[in-house]
Amino acid sequence: MNISIERNNCAECEHRMTCVGAAAGNRDASQRIRIARHDTLYQAGDAVSDHIFNIRSGSFKVLRAASQQPAQIIGFALAPDFLGLDALDRERHANTVIALEDSEVCSINWNRHAFEGRRRPVMRASLHALLSREIRREQRAALMLRNTQAEQRMADLLLSLSQRRVEFGHVAEQFRLPMSRCDIASYLGVTAECVSRLLLLFRQRALFELRRRDIKLLDLSALHRMAIGSAPESAMVAS
Amino acid sequence: MNISIERNNCAECEHRMTCVGAAAGNRDASQRIRIARHDTLYQAGDAVSDHIFNIRSGSFKVLRAASQQPAQIIGFALAPDFLGLDALDRERHANTVIALEDSEVCSINWNRHAFEGRRRPVMRASLHALLSREIRREQRAALMLRNTQAEQRMADLLLSLSQRRVEFGHVAEQFRLPMSRCDIASYLGVTAECVSRLLLLFRQRALFELRRRDIKLLDLSALHRMAIGSAPESAMVAS
DNA sequence: GAAAATAATTGATCCAGATCAAAGAAATTG
DNA sequence: CAATTTCTTTGATCTGGATCAATTATTTTC
């Protein structure tokens, strides 16, 4: 384990305008946590603190174990996603969260002291919004999975990664896949062999260039046509 | 459309001890809505009011449309489930909710007037709990879908229906499936033919008796063994 | 930087579940 | 209550992706 924690100064943070944590305006509300590749942010069974995590840099995979079975990846989280929204009312975490690369998260206290003053309705609304949004995101993921075609799932994943890059101020077309082919397979609910073949197929169709984990999307609109929520507009309606 | 709305008296409601709405103690916070089989509670694109719905009797299917494709069923909601948790921060609904039988819901205003007095921290926590719980539920559904085996998905659905019956004070073993085979197929992400064959197979294995929509589960533990969260205990950990 | 361990690709075969087709059972409708 | 319409079951065939088996990169480790 190689986790380092330090005090955070939300007042000077570049994300203070949009972050729920900064809105708390509470010195104790936020901490910066550095976490190395392959290390665990929290694990199924760990006690839940009154904190949620906002990813500042890097990326994570979220695993859920089903007894009798190896754990499956139920999501990838990239900056500026939140983690821990699924455990607000629980004693113990149900999922395990592992860093895919060296990453930083802000830990935000959402308990009564930070969130329940009568003067913090905006922030409270933000927490509701965050939670509600996460529900829609999960619904969308499930919709993607009901679409049996592995091609569509793959297209959907690539677009969702791309979109989150854009949200964080990067270009949509070019980025580095933070996860292994095997992780992708687990998330899509297919085998690693299948992922490998799909990537080959997509490359042959000139949908993207791919070398190791560096990807350059060449035909975003084709990907949109393949993916489920399809049209960019409808993707916005969905979340 | 055959929807009737009437004032609700939470103070005398049999569920006042556990219902978020009743905790509001606000006369205007809750309304009782009757809705006939096949009618729509709300539809994708409808304006979102500051209300969530608590099912008092009956059942619903929740549909999400992906452009280019027929809408898929992303969930079934039975008493005492909540509906509308996915739209707190949205202008318009992303999903469509249709009654599977004549049903009743309580509409609960969750906006600042009902929920933000300083004396309602318990209720606010309940809303957080509700939302967080819904996220876990969706994660679980997605986990179920990644499990390619149709058998496991079916076992999982039957158990989740059974569990919710128990939550509402009924017996676990015997109930009526409120949805068509076709609805089940859409939810599980398989074809109706596949559902039909699975049900036959399960009957042959003496997992349940089934006549039309009336089902009697004979071997709950076998179903638990087949389903993903497997053991009853671990199902509790998951949500 | 060579050796070991791990990840990714590629090929061959197989099977769960899709698709196509048709018959039978319930529920609606006039 | 007979006629439609819709839902469900059953059968035959086909296929996308799984599984099994090697081979070829990449990382890690010492």
UniProtKB/TrEMBL annotation, chains A, B:
<dbReference type="GO" id="GO:0003677">
    <property type="term" value="F:DNA binding"/>
</dbReference>
<dbReference type="Pfam" id="PF00027">
    <property type="entry name" value="cNMP_binding"/>
</dbReference>
<dbReference type="GO" id="GO:0006355">
    <property type="term" value="P:regulation of DNA-templated transcription"/>
</dbReference>
<dbReference type="InterPro" id="IPR000595">
    <property type="entry name" value="cNMP-bd_dom"/>
</dbReference>
<dbReference type="Pfam" id="PF13545">
    <property type="entry name" value="HTH_Crp_2"/>
</dbReference>
<protein>
    <submittedName>
        <fullName>CRP/FNR family transcriptional regulator</fullName>
    </submittedName>
</protein>
<feature type="domain" description="HTH crp-type">
    <location>
        <begin position="148"/>
        <end position="221"/>
    </location>
</feature>
<dbReference type="InterPro" id="IPR012318">
    <property type="entry name" value="HTH_CRP"/>
</dbReference>
